[in-house]
Every structure is written in C-alpha cells, then in structure tokens.
Amino acid sequence: MNNNSNKMFFLFILFFSTLISISSNSWFGCWIGLEINLLSFIPLISNSKNLLSVETSLKYFLTQSLASINFLFMILIKFSLLKNFNMNNIISIMMNSSLLMKMGSAPFHFWFPNIVEGLSWMNNFMLMTWQKISPMILLSYYFNKNFLIFMIIMNLIIGSLGGLNQTSLRKLLAFSSINNLGWMIFSIMISENLWLFYFLIYSMMISMMISLFFLMNMYFMNQLFINNMNFFIKLNLLINFLSLGGLPPFMGFMPKWIIINFLLINKFYFLIFIFMMTSLIIIYYYIRIIYSSFMFNYFKMKWVNLLMKNNMSLINLSSFISISSMILSTFIFM
C-alpha cells in the first residue's frame, strides 16, 4: 500500500511538472519543469528488486541530465552572457538538440531503444506519450526550421530501418515511436492543433497496442506465433499494426493524410517521397509480423488459456475500439 501511495505521489508530480513546463513564461521556468519531470519519472521506473530496472533508470537519468545541462547552458548564453553577439542560429540548434535528445529523437536516439527494453509496458506507454509533451511544446516556441527538417528526415529513416531486424516487441514500438516523432515534429511546425490531433490519435493507438501486449504478457515476436490466439485478437493486432503504420482507411492515416496534403500544397515533393517511402517500410514489416501470426497455428499452453480467460473482457473491449475506429475513419474518408 505504501509503495502504491508513493507511485501515485510521483505520478501526480509528473503530470504537474509537465503543466509547469508548458505554461511557464520564462525559459528558466521551463527548465525547472523539465527537471521536476525527470526527478519524478525515475522513481516510477526504478525497482530495487530488478537490476535491469535500476540500470535503465540510471541510463535515463544520465542522458536526460546531459540534455538538461546543455539546455540550461544555452539559456544562460542566450539571455545573459552574449547579448551583443549574433549567435541565434547556433543557440537555436543547440537548444533544439537538447530537447530532441530528451524526446529520444534521431540522431540522439541511442539511449531510447535500450531504455524501452528495460521498462514494463505501462512505463513504456508513459515514456512514448506523456514524456514527449514538454519537449515538443518547448520545441515549438523556438526552433531552427532547416535544422528541424533535417532531423525529421533522420527520424523517418532511422525509425523505419531500425525496426526491420528487431525481434523484441518493445524495441519495435521504440523505433515506431522514433518514426512517428518525425511526423509529430513536422505537424507542430505546421500548427499546434494539428500536433495535438496527431498526438491524441498516436496515444490512442499505442495505448491499445501496449494494453493488448500487457494483458497477454507478450514481449517478443515469437510469442505472437507460438500462442494460438483468438481470431478477434489477431484481427485487433492487424488493425492496430496497420493503423500505427498509417495505412488507409485506418485511424492512423488521418493525421498523416493532413500532413501529406499540406506538403503537396506547398510543393515539398522530396519530403513527401521520404514520408511515404519510410511509411511503406514500416507497413511492410508490420504485415510480415501479422501474416506470420495468422499463418502459424500451435497448441495453446495451459497458462495462456488461463491468462486469456481472466483478461478476455478487456481484450474484447480493445478489439471493439479498434474495429469501430476503422469503421468511423472509413466514413470520414468517404
């Protein structure tokens, strides 16, 4: 009970620190919000009984501290030390780099898949969604356009190619998150409302995927092939994977369609090519996973049967949401 109350306290501080960061009227206040966020997230992910969890929390602390120091140093340079020198481009690039490192964006992504691999599914959900809000909003306040476009291309390419040879479902979702981060950065460059729309849909999709893997206790790809799952669960996986990849008429296609439409209007044809080709690579390896899980049929083990019976209502709810979102998005495109 005491452990749960501690977790609830740090969870409340985590949400509160994000609000401090995005509502502050000074860069120093934003930095304080980011630091409180870091110090409240580490107790949530660390577990003294699990050495991998302790190692993960230490890695997370070191990378986030490095980004925070760089961010604070750039704030001091910008507003106090070098007011007379024209260094706006360098300062904006360094501040953007710090925030991108906090989000786990390419090419500062090397810590992200390793940390995702050492966390539970629920902590991964928080890392892939809530922990991206503060840096993303701060990035929209002060950014270098050319630098961010280069970073977007890096995210798209590394996020799509990095997931090709993965056997871990957590690492697969980590590289998918890096790819989607490229789309989110571009959406926030267009409009904050578009970013919010993309972020909410991405959070909904990733929550359905993670809840399904959590309920079925799945961590590796071979578990999708070994477990002879119910047809509706397989259908749920199919819809969620394809929606996460951005295939029409699924829900994940809607925000991507708006971004592609904006690029077409402004004649950014090279960016359209990069966005579409990387999405095709992601859809390719999602279909490869789903095809294999549909084709393989093994006998269920007893513990799988027991687990399925206990969590069937939640799994059915997730399936219903996935199928209804597909039907709804189809009517929108019509």
Automatic annotation (TrEMBL):
Gene Ontology molecular function, alphabetical: NADH dehydrogenase (ubiquinone) activity
Enzyme superclass (EC): translocase
Cell compartments where the protein resides: Mitochondrion inner membrane
A Pfam family the protein falls into: Proton_antipo_M
Enzyme Commission number, as recorded: 7.1.1.2
Entry's Gene Ontology cellular component terms: mitochondrial inner membrane
The reaction(s) this protein catalyses: a ubiquinone + NADH + 5 H(+)(in) = a ubiquinol + NAD(+) + 4 H(+)(out)
Membrane topology classification: Multi-pass membrane protein
Residue ranges of the TM segments: 60-81, 93-112, 147-165, 172-190, 196-219, 231-248, 268-291, 312-333
Domain (NADH:quinone oxidoreductase/Mrp antiporter transmembrane): residue spans on this chain: 24-281
GO biological process, one term: mitochondrial electron transport, NADH to ubiquinone
Protein role: Core subunit of the mitochondrial membrane respiratory chain NADH dehydrogenase (Complex I) that is believed to belong to the minimal assembly required for catalysis. Complex I functions in the transfer of electrons from NADH to the respiratory chain. The immediate electron acceptor for the enzyme is believed to be ubiquinone. Core subunit of the mitochondrial membrane respiratory chain NADH dehydrogenase (Complex I) which catalyzes electron transfer from NADH through the respiratory chain, using ubiquinone as an electron acceptor. Essential for the catalytic activity and assembly of complex I.
Family, as annotated: Belongs to the complex I subunit 2 family.
The protein's name in its UniProt record: NADH-ubiquinone oxidoreductase chain 2
Species assigned in the record: Bombyx mori
Upper classification of the organism: Eukaryota, Metazoa, Ecdysozoa, Arthropoda, Hexapoda
